[in-house]
């Protein structure tokens, strides 16, 4: 067994004890979760490996040539939600966040998903495997782009991870997903350099439909790169400018660079993009004309109010949250509680207030 990493924290979730790895270590990626009271089917410490980081390419053609050469690769849509790993531990379906916390909110939703997906059957047949996917919709972690989806939180599988933290080959994953009725992110099939013009058309179409981009994966599941659209980059700029003092400045510069490189590589209309880049910036700071604070608003749906209380405790470790309302709602005829809350970004709130009151700063 590999030695235990030192950047660990022991936590409990109900009666389950777990150890989360809070940062990358030479042996364990950030977000790895170990369950000391549980073993896998080989009798080893039950470990859910951290979801690996995905390398981003900034230019499509040269990126594809560099990473896939003349070999084929699978293309999937990169959808915008938050990363979730589903596992079954001691008979309980659990949802882990990217950072390695058991999320009470997503775990509650996982039991809803299990009613129409074969999650229980999957974990009965493959107890050691982990289902990695994007949770989209009523997210408590990031403000979501608009997908035409019914209210609630939705799960789309994009990887199945084995006991070593490796992803299964995409084709095996698609087969298992179909077999257990687990919805996947949209699959665009196999491409290679010879079909580059079609891949470019696909990206233009995603850009026009305001989608985030693609993730490209080799048939053995080992090589993975992501490439995103300027529409999504500009939307990120617009939505986050009002939080600018709480966000790393590289966040904006990187997105500007990516948008410009896309416009150049795909020969997009300069005037249109000059306008769109300008609008992202002007629109992003519109809130300064009537500034009350730098915050994001969330609207989530829980079955039990205790789920909200436990989620709130988890969020409190990171940001200040303010509850706006709670109300009873029906979803598909079933009772839920909708909760509105704000994540307040202190630095940006303070700095913008000072600026707008006319205070001067030394640069
Ligand atoms: P990274 O994961 O590379 O550290 P990040 O946390 O900033 O970067 P993103 O830039 O959003 O995340 O890109 C990676 C994330 O995209 C994955 O962690 C996953 O949650 C999400 N994702 C959405 N669709 C897919 C897909 N088809 N395949 C893999 N990941 C996907």
Summarize the structure.
Helix content is 32%, strand content 30%. It is of the alpha+beta class.
Kindly list the characteristics that best describe this protein.
10 helices, 32% helix, binds adenosine-5'-triphosphate, Alpha-Beta Plaits, alpha+beta, five-stranded mixed β-sheet, 363 residues
In words, what does this structure look like?
The protein has 363 residues and is of the alpha+beta class. Among the domains are: 229-289, no CATH class; 295-356, Alpha-Beta Plaits, CATH 3.30.70. The chain is built from ten helices and 16 strands. Strands 5-13-12-6-11 form a five-stranded mixed sheet. It has a four-stranded antiparallel sheet with strand order 1-2-3-4, with no helix packed on it. Strand 1 (8-13) and strand 2 form a beta hairpin. The mean pLDDT is 95. The protein binds adenosine-5'-triphosphate. Residues 51, 53-54, 76, 78-79, 83, 134, 158, 185, 215, 226 line the site of adenosine-5'-triphosphate (ATP).
